[in-house]
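Standup notes
- DV: blocked on the single-chain target, sequence here:
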Amino acid sequence: MTLMRLQRALARAGVASRRKAEDLIRAGRVRVDGAPATIGMSVDPGAQKITVDGRAVRSATRTAWLALNKPIGYVVSRSDPEGRRTVFGLLPKIPGLTYVGRLDVMTSGLLLLTTDGTAAHRLMHPRYEVPRTYWLAVHGAAGGGGGGGGGGADAIRQALAQRIVIEGRAVRILTSRVRPAGKSVEIELTLAEGRQRIVRRIAEALGLKVEWLHRVAYGPVRLGKLAEGHWRELTRQEIGAIERLHGSR
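- DV (later): unblocked, structure below
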């Protein structure tokens, strides 16, 4: 028996986001084994009959793993109250598909999606320190003043080698590479954490302005040459590498 919150089960089945699922439950539109559902109740999607407006909710029948090259301007959510485009409009309709770590609307690059909730949790949880790699271009000089170019690159390189603390906690920077690029500076940054907007917050802490930000790797999966707005299924090798992370299988 695998119990989970009803709103999570509805989200994993692709019915609606968790917030919208709660609205459906409150409106009395959801039943579990014929009885009206309640907020916060736990269910076993594989053993219990869940219906919305009388129609059965089907749980995911196979584990899916996808990689998407997220374009700028897309929201990582099933729906958006502001009416912006969401990444799910770029993806096949797979019940239970959920994203592994958000990217903000102005960040592009690799987004992993899966129906394996346990593996998704391990990939995102700070305890497991799964590396994420980003490319970004910035201008300004670490510590303020100056512009781009070689001098700015040197200052940024030195600043990234120091301990950076955000909200009382040091950022886990695994590796960084810095190079001048015209009037800007390009950085490749690998972090062992995924706090909200963490790369932009690092730049802000160093007095830098982000021009663009692009995620190129998450754990053992790399974006490679996947075209913007396109998706692919993960290879067996990539899935195996995810399953081996910290004994997740």
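- Follow-up: Helices lie at 6-12, 18-26, 117-124, 149-160, 198-205, 236-244.
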